[in-house]
Design goal:
Blueprint: H1 2-5, H2 7-16, E1 18-21, H3 25-30, H4 32-36, H5 42-62, E2 67-71, H6 80-88, H7 97-120, E3 125-129, H8 131-140, H9 142-145, E4 155-156, E5 171-172, H10 189-201, E6 208-209, H11 213-218
Parallel strand pairs: 1-2, 2-3
Antiparallel strand pairs: 3-6, 4-5
Helix pairs in contact: 5-7
Length: 219
Amino acid sequence: MSDVLGNGTADFFIGMSHCIISVGSNDFFEKQNSLFRNETQPQQLIANLTATYAIHLQNLYDLGARKFGIIGVPPLGCCPKERYINYQMGGNGSCVEAMNELAQAFHASIESLLQNFSSINQGVVYSLGNTYNIIMDFIDNRRASGFQVVETACCGNGTFNAETGCESGSKLCRNRNHYIFWDEFHPTEAAARHAALTLAYADGQEFVTPMNFSSLAKA
């Protein structure tokens, strides 16, 4: 960028840009078995991930970034794959609360990190999206959110359409806009759009703090 724009213009461009970051979910999914076998301690995993997060934020700041839009981890235990795991283990296919507790604890840790990061680095402004609360609101208030199916994936096979991924020959729902989940892990376009609008324009502190993403854009 500096080669193309020149140092001064590149610095200005980076300083006015929004760094949108959405990471963390896969780290917990990959460590799930070792967590459940007590081979990995949840508190230590969260501490390690938060420390790594802090390094990357500081690196971005040192490169000139000042605006950060952070998208938190959703309720991991409520995705179709986790419901299928619950069912396989003799449960009723409800959310896996241990994974949801990890997601909430990680969000709290990142919130504390951002408060400290913005206090020691001049000029930092940020929005932290509480994706956990957003998706749980979709699930708990399906009529208001417009989603008719909150447990099962639109595309997949087997129980909750989550025994395999979305692949050739998978069962496909008739109307993906009625579903929160596209496959065993990921949201549909309709759910992602609804969540994005919430992050951009929500009032109050339930879904995004300390300001929504549209306010961040104007900051």
